[in-house]
Amino acid sequence: MSDETSESAFSNYGLYTIRDNLELFMPNTEIKIERMGSNVFSYVRNDSESNLVKKIIPVKSDELTIEISPIRPLNYPARRTSYVYLELETPVFLSEHSAATVFARCPIEIGVFLVHDGHKDSLDCFTCDPVNSRFALYGAPDSGTLCKYTNSEIVESYEDSTPYIDAVLEINLQNELDEGHSVSKIIFPIFGNSVYYKDSKAIIDSIEAVLKKKLTLEVFDVSKKSIQTDWTLSPSYVRDMVVKSIDMGVD
Amino acid sequence: MVLDFLQSLSEIEIVGGLTLLSLFVGGIIMGVGIIIAKTVRLLFTKYYAPKLSQDTAKNFGKIIYFGIIIIAFLLFTSSTGVDLSGLLVAGGIFGIVIGFATQSVVSNLISGVFLMLEKPARQGDSIELPSLNISGALLDIGTFSVRIRLFDGTIMRVPNESVFTSTIRSLTSTPVRRSECVVGIAYKEDIDAATNVINKEIRKTMPFVLMLPKPEFRIKELADSSVNIEILVWHPREDWGEVAPKLLKVVKKALDDNGIEIPFPQRVIWNAKE
Predict the structure, then answer these.
(1) Contact of A19 with A35, CB cutoff 8 Å
(2) Residue B238: which of A76, A80, A138 has the nearest Cβ?
(3) Class assignment of domain B176-257?
(4) B118-156 tens-digit pLDDT
(5) Which of A30, A184, B240, B260 has the most CB atoms less than 10 A away?
(6) Which residues of chain B carry a pLDDT beneath 50?
(7) Residue A28 sits at the chain B interface (C-beta within 8 Å)
(8) Which domain holds residue A130?
(9) Which residues of A touch B236 (CB under 8 A)?
(10) Cβ of residue A85 closer than 8 Å to a chain B Cβ
(11) A95 occurs within a structural domain
(12) Would residue A137 count as lying in a domain?
């Protein structure tokens, strides 16, 4: 995708090659990239809270290529955790030895990447939904896990993500226990989950959540499952690392 | 010629069988011991210390260095054939005298060892010593003292004994912390409406306040002029500065924007009928 003209509607995710200037519009956020000199561009981001981010970008060639893509929601208001806490708006009841697949919304942030010489460098990241970018604690204050929190709505399919606000992820739920349980929250390390985009929609790798017995304890075991899709894979804003999943208790 | 020189040294007796030659050999042993100790400590610091915490690495470095020095000293004494039994008796008496004289030094040393073993806080942790009225980041636990960088940027050296015998509050060893403030509203105001608007304003403007556990509102006191509400919010441990100092401002703004009165102290005076 290549675009050099200003757009009035919300812009799509994707690659943008800029020769002179470019304006991108997203919910509560506006990005302006302008040529300052022969090999220098300026980058300005404005948001609804009047925060202004300015950067000067020297480039080797005569044009600047950037990629706008959804990224994992771990950077705003500050990078404090690798875990996401999905509180399902409507809990899912799983009867004994049953399984279900649901699609749920998961928040995202937006990453701006500078594309050059086959590399994608992290240039900027932000959220279009700052009011809902909040933390929560799972567990006790002395030993719990700090997570990025979201009140997640169950949706019908991958097409139901809100542009620039959230992505949809598939949750495969399974109950291996001898009694029924309601699943109202899922906590998982999102570092292992890749984000994909198409136009202004985004999806995230699936997770498998199994209610099972570990020795004498009933636990909720959550793991990542990669998906096969023709959507474009988003670059990682920060370097990927391995984060251990936590053992959730059963409610 | 060298042999003649060494022969001459072996013939010069300093005291009780200790010749100049044995002292010379002992000196070489001690010198080599010091060089080995420094080299081993250097190699340890370069290759192994980065994998350990700074405190542990520093202490291991000292143990290795002084361990090799002590071994070298023992080799030195055995090579010279010095009888240390007399020295031990004299040293024992001398030790008692020195012990009394340097009681606080020894106490700090022992306290330092126990602090290193117990590890009440790690290097870099923010700690508070309420009895000493000290708050800051723990820089290191040394042989005799602890260094703390106060929140005003200055560095304070506190004797190990004082730290060991003090109550230590660790401010950063848990993932989250709680901050509180108290605000008074007029008696005529609806308490639920007031807490509701405060909650909304906190949710909107304080990104570091946790959604879970939720902000909590307690009626602290039915005071002389106001109903005092205590507001308790949780936040990540690193973000105390983004929450605690701003909480009262946010609360006041919420009440002001919604026309909820924060009363001045007032007293109703009834005049007796004349």
Answers:
(1) yes
(2) A80
(3) alpha beta
(4) 888 888 889 999 999 999 999 988 888 999 999 999 999
(5) B260
(6) none
(7) no
(8) 14-235
(9) 78, 80, 135, 146
(10) yes
(11) yes
(12) yes
